[in-house]
């Protein structure tokens, strides 16, 4: 039996979120839901996540998990909103604590911010299995982009987060705190050892040059044969050299500073100050 998969594309951040449901029981997981954010006004909204919740409710599904593939730098997570609305537990890779520790220093959060992953309901290790009705979600630790990156295997489908993009766009950057090009190469090879027909679902698409439509579903075979960065025959040494040289010229993601402050809190906003307003920090001349 295959899981039912529905994709939700947020064009403002080029993010693809997913609902993955067990057709037999109706149990479902939401993967990488987006909290809408307007940086000029400092305004959040829940429209993208609410579309997912409306879809679930219309079909009588029961949300049991919100699964984060990693601490995102390009969009704010709506995991906390989804938990409030549906009761779905939030899970992420257990090495989220390394990302929290790195950004605790960057944002000078102090001891009031615990770096133990306690903001999340479940911390995941490689090989863990999460129940999804009559189905199971298998966790693959796939670090390199960040230390906490995990992919989720459900039947013949893998949700790879930012580890891989579409074959014509390539692979994730590795210059964030804890990123490592060697680890990314090995993580991708781990994914590409799966059967050739395995479906891969990516977290972002930016339309590679020459392609006019957004896309987010590919296969192990297509990645092995045609990924522009890491197709079959590309050695670890070649990939690491290429990735490091490319990363050295990349700009920081537009939303990295607000996004990380929210996402290390499992999609929660910073605590409000004595006027009842929550604030995000902007460290100057640090990054």
Structural commentary:
- It is a single chain.
- With 287 residues, the chain is of the alpha/beta class.
- It has one domain (4-257): 4-Layer Sandwich (Metallo-beta-lactamase, Chain A).
- 25% of the residues lie in helices and 25% in strands.
- The protein contains seven helices and 15 strands.
- It has helices spanning 47-59, 79-86, 96-106, 181-192, 220-226, 236-247, 256-263; strands at residues 4-10, 15-21, 27-31, 34-38, 43-45, 62-67, 76-77, 89-93, 122-124, 129-132, 135-141, 150-154, 157-161, 199-202, 217-219.
- The strands form three sheets. Strands 1-2-3-6-8-9 form a six-stranded mixed sheet, covered by helices on one side. The chain has a six-stranded mixed sheet with strand order 10-11-12-13-14-15. Strands 5-4-7 form a three-stranded antiparallel sheet.
- It starts with a strand and ends in a 24-residue tail after the last helix.
- The mean pLDDT is 97.
What's a concise summary of this model?
The chain has helices at 47-59, 79-86, 96-106, 181-192, 220-226, 236-247, 256-263; strands at residues 4-10, 15-21, 27-31, 34-38, 43-45, 62-67, 76-77, 89-93, 122-124, 129-132, 135-141, 150-154, 157-161, 199-202, 217-219.
Properties at a glance:
6-stranded mixed beta sheet; 287 residues; alpha/beta; Metallo-beta-lactamase, Chain A; 7 helices
Spatial separation of the terminal alpha carbons: 47 Å
Helix percentage: 10-25%
* Order of secondary-structure elements: EEEEEHEEHEHEEEEEHEEHHH
Shape: globular
Number of discrete domains: 1
Class from helix and strand fractions: alpha/beta
CATH-derived architecture: 4-Layer Sandwich
How much is the radius of gyration in Å? 18 Å
Q: What is the CATH top level name?
A: Alpha Beta
Q: What does the largest sheet look like?
A: 6 strands, mixed
CATH topology group: Metallo-beta-lactamase, Chain A
Q: Quick one: CATH superfamily?
A: Ribonuclease Z/Hydroxyacylglutathione hydrolase-like
How confident is the prediction overall: mean pLDDT?
97
Q: How are the strands of the biggest sheet laid out side by side?
A: 1-2-3-6-8-9
Residue ranges: pLDDT <50 for 5 or more in a row?
none
* Contiguous helical run count: 7
Fraction of residues in β-strands:
15-25%
Strands, count: 15
């Amino acid at each position: 039996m295959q899981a039912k998969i529905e994709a939700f594309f947020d064009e403002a951040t080029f993010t693809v979120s997913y609902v993955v449901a067990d057709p037999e029981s109706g149990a479902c997981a939401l993967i990488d839901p987006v909290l809408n954010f307007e940086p000029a006004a400092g305004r959040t909204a829940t429209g993208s996540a609410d579309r997912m919740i409306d879809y679930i409710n219309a079909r009588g599904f029961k949300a049991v998990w919100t699964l984060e593939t990693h601490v995102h730098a390009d969009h704010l997570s709506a995991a906390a909103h989804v938990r409030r609305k549906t009761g779905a537990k939030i899970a992420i890779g257990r090495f989220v604590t390394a990302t929290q520790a790195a950004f605790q220093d960057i944002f000078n959060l102090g001891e009031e911010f615990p770096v133990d992953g306690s903001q999340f309901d479940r911390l995941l290790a490689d090989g863990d299995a999460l129940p999804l009705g009559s189905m199971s979600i298998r966790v693959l630790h796939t670090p390199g982009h960040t230390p906490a990156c995990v992919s989720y295997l459900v039947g013949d489908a893998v949700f790879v987060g930012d580890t891989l993009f579409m074959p014509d766009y390539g692979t994730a950057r590795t210059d964030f705190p804890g990123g490592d090009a060697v680890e990314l190469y090995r993580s991708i090879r781990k994914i590409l050892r799966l059967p050739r027909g395995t479906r891969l679902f990516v977290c972002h698409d930016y339309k590679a040059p020459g392609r006019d439509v957004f896309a987010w579903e590919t296969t192990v075979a297509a990645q092995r044969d045609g990924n522009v960065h890491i197709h079959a025959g590309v050695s670890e040494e070649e990939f690491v050299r290429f990735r490091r040289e490319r990363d050295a010229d990349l700009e920081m993601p537009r939303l990295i500073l607000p996004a990380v402050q929210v996402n290390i809190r499992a999609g929660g906003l910073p605590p409000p100050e004595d006027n009842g307003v929550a604030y995000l920090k902007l460290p100057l001349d640090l990054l």
